[in-house]
Amino acid sequence: MIEHVHRLDIATYFTRDEGSTARPPELGDDDLRSLYGYPARLDRPWVRVNFVSSIDGAVTVEGASAGLGTPADKRVFAVLRELADVVVVGAGTARTENYGGARTDPDLARRRVVAGLSEVPPIAVVTASGRVDPTSRLLTDTVVPPLVLTSARADSDNLGRLHTAGARVEVVSDGDVTGQAVVAALQRRGLRRVLCEGGPGLFGTLTADGVVDELCLTTSPQLVAGAAGRIAISPGAHPTPMTRAHVLGDDDGTLLTRWVRRGE
Ligand SMILES: NC(=O)c1ccc[n+]([C@@H]2O[C@H](COP(=O)([O-])OP(=O)(O)OC[C@H]3O[C@@H](n4cnc5c(N)ncnc54)[C@H](OP(=O)(O)O)[C@@H]3O)[C@@H](O)[C@H]2O)c1
């Protein structure tokens, strides 16, 4: 007997048919900022992770996440960046997606300052090898210097080149960078509203190390099949119970879910 299946009554819509009263009101940007607000008065980094996947779990289409994005996902992606002190990303994603610095404009910078944030969140790249190109957009297309969190195993010559190119390089571990080392490095810099944009390798480490507080997951309304991986990869399984904070829906079928670690 199935006892616990019930219809979600918390779906909220981004858009509304003219004249319809049957649907909840459309969400504006202020609503989204409120729905995705970080806990107030953090005394430690709060690690939020954001991903988009297909319905069948693919994290990429032809090697990149762009093919999964939808208008609602892009809107929430921007809101999440607006609310963050720092955007953390694995070097694999920075390389594949050709990461540059976070975009800004005067209104966005002003809203951030009013909210007690810096004008632009820096990108923090996690790399064991130090293999981040000093001529990449991370260094050349940014208004704030990136942070490179790395290991004593990294190529020291390249770390020197990254430093010369303007990166703030910090060796935070002897081997692979642990979730705890990432969190401690961000805490030392007072960066507590953490937004991790992946990729699956880094998310796997953060989950395995028990430092993920929250996952924002967009389900893109499509099947993809193929050989794409899933959103988290680690050598072993680390079940981490989460509770559902909200589910938002857009008319195109996009689902935006927010999950918080149980007990938070
Ligand atoms: N759908 C989405 O929302 C989404 C989001 C992000 C990424 N992606 C996709 O995911 C793919 C990249 O996957 P990926 O697993 O390679 O991503 P990743 O986790 O960003 O990159 C793995 C690399 O990051 C560094 N790294 C990650 N965790 C580390 C740790 N604990 N310690 C030290 N270094 C660490 C290492 O770099 P070094 O090799 O330099 O040591 C490692 O090789 C891309 O195709 C990208 O498009 C999709």
Question: How would you summarize what this structure contains?
Answer:
This protein has helices at residues 29-35, 71-82, 91-96, 106-114, 137-140, 156-164, 179-188, 200-208, and strands at residues 12-13, 46-54, 86-90, 123-127, 147-151, 168-173, 193-196, 214-220, 242-249, 255-261. The chain has 264 residues and is of the alpha/beta class.
Describe the structure.
With 264 residues, the protein is an alpha/beta fold. It has 2 domains: 46-84 and 199-264, Dihydrofolate Reductase, subunit A, CATH 3.40.430.10; 85-192, Dihydrofolate Reductase, subunit A, CATH 3.40.430. 25% of the residues lie in helices and 22% in strands. The protein is built from 8 helices and 10 strands. The protein has helices at 29-35, 71-82, 91-96, 106-114, 137-140, 156-164, 179-188, 200-208, and strands spanning 12-13, 46-54, 86-90, 123-127, 147-151, 168-173, 193-196, 214-220, 242-249, 255-261. It has a 10-stranded mixed β-sheet, sandwiched between helices. β5, α6 and β6 form a beta-alpha-beta unit. Residues 51-53, 59-60, 63-65, 68, 90-93, 96-97, 126-129, 131, 176-177, 197-202, 205 line the site of NADP nicotinamide-adenine-dinucleotide phosphate. NADP nicotinamide-adenine-dinucleotide phosphate is lined by residues 51-53, 59-60, 63-65, 68, 90-93, 96-97, 126-129, 131, 176-177, 197-202, 205.
